[in-house]
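hey can u check if this looks right to u? its 307 residues, i copy pasted from the old doc so theres a chance i mangled smth
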Amino acid sequence: MKVLLIDIDSKIPNLALKKIEKYYLDKGNEVIWNNELMASVCDKTYVSCVFDWNKKQAEQWENRAEIGGSGYSLDIKLPKEIEEIKLKINWGFTTRGCIRKCPFCIVPQKEGMIKAVGDIYDIWDGKSKEIILLDNNLLALPLHFKIIASQLRKEKLRVDFNQGLDHRLLTEDLAKELFTLKHIHELRFAFDDIASKTTVLKALDILEKLGIKAWGSRWYVYIGEKDTFDSVFERMELLREHKQAVYVMRDKKVYNKPEYIALACWGNMMGAFKMPLKEVMEKSKRLKPYKKYFNLENQLIREERRG
């Protein structure tokens, strides 16, 4: 039996398709990846679409393949015998679901309330020195997180909490656990709404108390339809003052707004973000075309007041 797997748009190896691959390989079948020309000679075809803007590509396979993925449908699930396969490929989930209901996130709708589904021994191949965890909100299960941290320490693994950590759940106790681990990348959190300013400051206080290095964490800064330049700039400037990096993420509905393009250019270039925006605007050839969208004198006054 020949099985064709089509990965339309995954940024990382597609976990669902990797499980399907293992399921059929274990049965002695042949598995072919991303060769559309082989569709006519394969007995079964599976297609995965992660991003909804690529849905039309997935729809072209209707009536010819099994189609799934969050970009195509949130209701289609893998068969239980495939979903429960444990892939020891050094990246994956130890929890699924989330306690939050962020308006831009599909995880609660797709996976429901958070629950533990495994540990690092369900993911780790026993050889690698690094592991990538894709959990959406690992700190929401603090006891489970401590078990995971204990396993990471025992096996002396470097870890990447790839989807970030919820700063609102950070306590000094959990932060101490984080600081005992070896990390592949910097710690990552999110500052998605200026209404979270108090909890962000509390988290920063904990991190600074435990000795986080300058620019030692990275914060996702989401820009949505309800945001204004000031609501985004205030979040970024607060993090800059605390010498922590940012990564600006623009919703597709505001992606092309020039003032947000400029903020993303500033925030997502570490060398630039260490300087005040006004100074960068004056010096950077890349950002000079955006000067007309800002009242830099008013911004300078805001910066001086903070100083």
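The CA atoms of residues 229 and 256 lie 14 Å apart.
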